[in-house]
Amino acid sequence: MATQAQLPEGRVLIIMTGGTICMKPSPDGEGLIPVRGFLNQGMAPRPSFNDGSMPEPLPVMTTATTKKYLRSLRTPPSTYSRHIRYTLYEFPELLDSSSISSEGWTQIATTVQNNYSLFDGFVVLHGTDSLAYTSSALSFMLSHLGKPVILTGSQASIFALQSDAEGNLLGSLILAGTFMIPEVCLFFHHRLFRGNRTTKVSASSFDAFASPNCEPLATITAMGAEVNWNLVCRPRSIARFDVLRRLDTAHVACLRIFAGIKPEMIAGVLRVPGLRGLILETFGAGNAPSGEDGSLTAIFKDAVARGIVIVNVSQCQSGSVTPLYAPATALGNAGVVFGHDLTTEAALTKLSFLFALPEITYEDIIQQIPLSLHGEITESSTAQFSHPSSKKPHLSDPQTAFAALGYAIAKGDVEAVTEMLDGDQYGLLEAQDYAGNSVLHVAALGPEKRVMRELLKRGASVHARNRAGNSALFLARRMGNGEMVGLLERGGAHLHVEEVERGGVDVGVGGGEGEGEGKGRGESNGGVGGVGV
Ligand code: ASP
User: Fold this and answer.
1) Which of 73, 252, 256, 328 could in theory staple to 286 by disulfide, Cβ–Cβ 3.0 to 4.6 A?
2) What sequence ranges are listed for the domain L-asparaginase N-terminal (predicted)?
């Protein structure tokens, strides 16, 4: 039995940007303002954030080249027999989130990037006012994300007697340090949402956020976290984590249609110099007045002809924009793009993201709007429901299925592996054997690079570690399997910081692109036998 001192630790970097969670009344009586020293004043005195073990400081990259050692704390063990070890980096200027802009998003994204290999997950503390915008923006800026980035805040300060701060922060910390959910998420009031599906729905209730068109990715109950793995989006190509540094928010606007709106007002907005995109918040399923003799429709048509991208989203919280009624159809015929069930926040930031891509054309953008880049939209071909795979489950229970898959991987049988994963109803990519090995660990020791490629393309996590704390990359390096090492690294794998601290495995293989044939191939089937969930 592991003693408390030996329990595994998930490492989390908390990035403090400001918001109510760290606010106190300003000395001049001008309202609440963010204050510094959150870790020492807000977290260290609370037993749920500090088990009193006084761990060593943790290194944090405060710029791409500056490393600082910051005080770290550790939670008591969670339901998952795991401590969360964390530190907190405060931005030089703490904001009320109503002032955040694309520079702030860049600062958050680069802080994650600079510290990506040092932590298992990231929690971003942020004001609630623009939290849904920041969550949406980051979801587009962070590509091939393999680790959780969870944004949270609170409706009342952590220093207030009655506050939601402790629950929101603790829930985020435990989720970020325990589950490899490779998405930008927003955690609030016991629920983990996909960030780009959220919207703020209350200025005072603790239940302040909703995700009307997408179920929560996880819910915290008294029994622990229930993760809805079927909903979790995973990377679908083999590539390393990367960041798009700047969104183009300067050329996008948003306009809410209201009953009686004058066409000249809309024409005025569409003539703003430099405007490239407009999010049009319409009635119901996407309807807007057409104006006398179609004057408004003509204004939209003219703007589209000038190359302005107009995206139709609904003012309603839930449901989707479709050509159901004649007014919505008329907008579609004028060249206005249906934004389906995009939130306004996601539509604005998606357009800002697309405009920031080099050499993207108007046609490319129009094509990308209805497609799901990071789960932000329900693609109409797969609309509204999910159905079980048409393939029969290969085997009748998860344990047998995982064991069969493990043996097929160890044998290097690509066809069998593909077939089993196509028919998978048990979430085998998340499963672990008695020693905590995932399918990727088994593949790392297996003979067949094509099996590894198949698993990576299906989004198997390169950051999962077995009970001994070893990643698949560590095992491949120990086997001296240079091809496997190269492939894993191309898929974003790096040694975990604890593996590096232990001395890693220096076998001199696996330069980033080292996938060429003819390098020493490791022995097959080593180590991981007797798979079972
Ligand atoms: N005005 C605050 C902010 O967004 C509100 C909050 O944090 O709840 O920074």
Assistant:
1) 328
2) 11-231
